Amino acid sequence: MLGYAFAGRLHRLAGIYVESSSSLPGPADLVFLALARALGIRVVTYVRDAYQLFPEYYPLTSLRRRISRAAFLPVFRTLARLSSAVAFPSRGLARAVLGEGGAGSRAVLLPPGARLPQVPPLDPAARGLLFVGSLAHGASGGDLLLEAMELAHERVDGLRLICVVPAGQGPRMPHEWVEMVRGGDDEIVGLLPRVLATVTPRTRTPYNDLAVPIKVLEYMGYARPLVVTDATETAAIVEAAGCGVIAPATAQGLADGIVAIAEAPARQLARWGDAARRAAEEHSWDHRVQQVLELLEVTP
Q: pLDDT tens digits for 104-144?
């Protein structure tokens, strides 16, 4: 990066967009951005997560993790001061990183973007509930989802949980109504004729209440109703869009939400699905790109 800068190439840049990873920015990152700002180049930083601050996602099991936890806020607040604008997926995450007032309240909100694949029409007779990701992580709600599905399966004939996991991952589930599919985006679209709704079973934890799962926005693009637990930011997105059912983050509560979707009239299912797709279009990646360019004050 320093070679790039001292070769004079920084002068050619109209702006710099930084998307933080789950690891900390290093000294070279900060020096590079400070130099860019000194040259009048706008820098927009997007902070997508803050796992280090929350033990349910980042247990302090090693010295390296303890150092990362202690350094997280000072380093990211330095990164924020070096940026022309700082964006977060939610206001809650902004406050957790930058503080309750001042910079935290001025942060720009950029929820994750949504893909807009070509999808088949919703079949009201479908009985599949789609979940993408690992069922193994407790905070992601895997155990909660399995318990809720078991209760819902007793009340609605034919319900199935379709779990899409990355290739090479995912153990076989000990339930006949769980279908494990290994694959990615293309495989998901192929499953949609059998999918009635998507499900996000996040448990209520401090981090889950302020985070915005990327999967929620992606699910909207599938034009199916969403069943989500009442984690604060997730519930707010679904409520604003009017695209599904918000359930208490308990096995019985989530089961009731699943049953409510399964027993809903076809017209209501269509309304939820259409609302989900409209919300995805409003949150499309193309729209996110335009927002970033506006923050950078760059004309494409």
A: 667 999 988 999 999 999 999 999 999 998 877 777 898 99
Give me the architecture of the 128-282 domain, per CATH. Answer: 3-Layer(aba) Sandwich (3.40)
- Whether 175 and 281 have beta carbons less than 8 Å apart is answered as no
Residues 120 and 175: their CA atoms lie apart, in Å, by 28
The vertex-205 CA angle with 196 and 224, nearest 5°, equals 15
pTM: 0.88
Structural element, H or E, at residue 245: strand 244-247
CA 58 to mean position of chain CA atoms: 17
Give the whole-angstrom CA distance, residue 234 versus residue 228. Answer: 7
For the chain, the structural domain boundaries read 2-112+285-296, 128-282
Q: Is the C-alpha dihedral spanning 274, 276, 282, 285 positive or negative?
A: negative
